[in-house]
Design goal:
The protein is an alpha/beta fold. It has a domain at about 190-274: Collagenase (Catalytic Domain) (3-Layer(aba) Sandwich), CATH 3.40.390.10. It has 11 helices and 6 strands. It has helices spanning about 1-20, 20-35, 40-50, 55-75, 85-100, 155-165, 170-180, 195-220, 235-245, 250-255, 255-265, and strands at about 75-80, 115, 120-130, 135-140, 145, 150-155. Strand 1 (about 75-80), helix 5 and strand 2 (about 115) form a beta-alpha-beta unit.
Length: about 270
């Protein structure tokens, strides 16, 4: 009888622990956000993150708070001899948190670690061709998002992006857009949205624009979006997210309906920042 009571108590305690998870997470985030943001970190933001001085004051403040939370929760690991410094951590966290501004967020809940390489890195890939034959190959990458809880990044490519912040490319934004897409368990170009009506609008406009990019890629026609976005809907979402933050003016001018979908999703209008 005593054993049964103990088991029942532990079961109730476990249920309570699971149910109280969001509340505990919220309190932890509040505590982290109230920490001190060092002056040296602000200097890193001004040096490395071109978006930061363009943000309205309230978004600058929010970005600093989100950086504190992000850095308090995520582990950074240097690979191939790369040394993790405050410059590395703040530069990556700031651009990852751009995607979270104006949003209630669990701060990439599936993400545990950011692995940083000094340069582009090789990963093993298995691919099945039309005949069903599986081929193994080495792929040279500047970044990759894994559903197992890691994002892999090349510091060399990050620095290139920081030096050319409005050229349409940003590996950090690309890979963390994948993390948002994966929050519902699938990397399919349809991140979690608040309602079925939003999914209908999102699906219709994204499919039309994805098909257009595929046609342009096949024909070699100019496109605001990198052709890599034509390889899969998930890549299209990540590529368009890069363009949203790094070339918002041309994006809004040439693809107004798609831009409107992304302003609703990210709850931001970067075209107004410049």
């Amino acid at each position: 009888m005593a054993a049964l009571i103990i088991v029942s108590f532990l079961g109730i305690l476990g249920i309570y622990w699971i149910a109280s998870g969001p509340s505990r997470r919220h309190k932890r985030h509040q505590t982290l956000a109230q920490g001190v943001f060092p002056a040296s970190w602000r200097a890193i933001l001004k040096k490395q993150v071109a978006h930061y001085p363009l943000l309205p004051d309230h978004l600058q403040q929010e970005l600093r708070r989100k950086i504190l939370i992000f850095l308090g929760e995520k582990q950074f690991i240097g690979c191939n001899g790369f040394q993790i410094t405050d410059e590395v951590r703040v530069t990556i966290a700031a651009q990852a948190c751009l995607l979270l501004l104006n949003r209630d967020s669990d701060f990439y809940p599936g993400l545990r670690q950011i692995l940083v390489y000094p340069n582009a890195f090789y990963v093993n890939r298995s691919e099945r061709d039309a005949a069903g034959v599986v081929w193994e190959r080495h792929a040279l990458l500047s970044g990759e998002s894994w559903s197992q809880g890691q994002v892999l990044l090349s510091w060399h490519d990050i620095i290139e992006d920081c030096q050319h912040p409005f050229d349409g490319f940003n590996v950090i934004i690309h890979e963390f857009a994948h993390q948002l897409d994966q929050e519902d368990g699938h990397a399919d170009g349809a991140p979690p949205l608040p309602s079925s009506e939003r999914y209908q609008s999102w699906s219709s406009i994204m499919q039309r624009e994805y098909d257009l990019l595929c046609r342009k890629a096949d024909a070699g026609l100019p496109s605001l979006f990198d052709y890599y976005g034509a390889t899969a809907p998930a890549e299209f979402f990540a590529v368009v997210s890069e363009t949203f933050f790094t070339r918002p003016g041309p994006f809004a001018a040439h693809h107004p309906e798609l831009y409107a979908e992304f302003t609703r999703f990210y709850r931001l209008d970067p075209a107004q920042w410049r």
